[in-house]
Inverse folding.
């Protein structure tokens, strides 16, 4: 369900230094303002998983620069609170909310229908992602990690290509992870029915993000739509803390020992969404706002095509789309 902001279009968004929330620094870290380009002002940006962690900060930074923000979130209360906080923090009233559980393909399609009906889309940030300690399945009967971390961005992006192509230059930014470096695509058991490992499933989904991004960039070559992926770093956020007390304690300890702030973690997402330095750059993987070479397994053309075709079958899209 789309929930529009109280103020209507056309109101100027005056920039304010964003106020901090729990776990966030009071001021922007050095460098994040520099990668937020003013050219994003007036453009429409959709961000998934935008009520916490780097998604929340990415949305805040782009809103502060004057973008019209569409937040996609599962929890209505958190989404409303995020919108109110963001409007107060940035002075930008053009922040909207769509409530959806993106592990459900029907709800992904509903999001795409609502966004497409409003016109063009300048930037899509596929940020949503999670790790699950136990194997569970989505409402569509698909292993949850694969459904949420890969099939959701795959389907949403494909359904929004029409809206993205309405803009002269648009961008798809997908949050992957260096967890892909140790991962393999188990095409014979993508959903972990025979053997399931939480971090194995997560790493595979992040490898899938890269295979998808590279194949998407190839298919969209010359269309004006750029597709890039990124590793945000090991971030001090709520990631992984949805899996019970033990996992929460492990993640909290690990983060205290070496995690970066959510602001620093959001930096590359903001950069790829807004910076003029990456105009025309597509099919690349970024770490700390710089191009990096991803693992050889992520650059295998046969795996790219195979994953695309399987994903199309699993989401009801034509393989050639």
């Amino acid at each position: 369900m789309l929930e529009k902001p109280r103020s209507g279009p056309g109101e100027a968004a005056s920039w304010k230094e964003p106020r901090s929330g729990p776990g966030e620094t009071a001021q922007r870290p050095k460098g994040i303002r520099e990668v937020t380009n003013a050219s994003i002002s007036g453009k429409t940006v959709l961000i998934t998983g935008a009520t916490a962690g780097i998604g929340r900060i990415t949305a805040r930074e782009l809103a502060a620069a004057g973008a019209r923000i569409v937040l996609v979130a599962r929890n209505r209360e958190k989404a409303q609170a995020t919108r109110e906080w963001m409007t107060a923090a940035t002075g930008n009233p053009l922040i909207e909310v769509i409530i959806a559980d993106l592990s459900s393909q029907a709800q992904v399609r509903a999001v795409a229908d609502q966004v497409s009906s409003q016109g063009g889309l300048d930037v899509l940030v596929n940020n949503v992602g999670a790790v699950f300690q136990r194997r569970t399945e989505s409402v569509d009967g698909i292993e949850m990690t694969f459904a949420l971390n890969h099939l959701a961005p795959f389907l949403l992006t494909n359904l929004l290509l029409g809206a993205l192509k309405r803009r002269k230059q648009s961008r798809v930014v997908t949050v992957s992870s260096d967890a892909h470096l140790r991962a393999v695509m188990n095409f014979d058991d993508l959903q972990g029915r025979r053997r399931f490992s939480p971090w194995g499933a997560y790493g595979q989904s992040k490898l899938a993000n890269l295979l998808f991004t590279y194949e998407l960039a190839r298919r969209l070559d010359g269309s004006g739509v750029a597709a890039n992926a990124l590793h945000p770093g090991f971030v001090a956020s709520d990631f992984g803390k949805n899996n019970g007390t033990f996992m929460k304690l492990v993640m909290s300890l690990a983060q205290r020992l070496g995690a970066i702030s959510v602001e620093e973690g959001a930096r590359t997402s903001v950069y790829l969404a807004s910076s003029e330095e990456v105009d025309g750059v597509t099919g690349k993987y970024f770490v700390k706002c710089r191009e990096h070479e991803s693992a050889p397994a992520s650059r295998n053309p046969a795996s790219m095509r195979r994953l695309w075709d399987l994903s199309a079958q699993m989401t009801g899209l034509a393989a050639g789309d």
Summary: Residues 4-30, 250-255 have pLDDT under 50 and may be disordered. The longest strand covers residues 225-231.
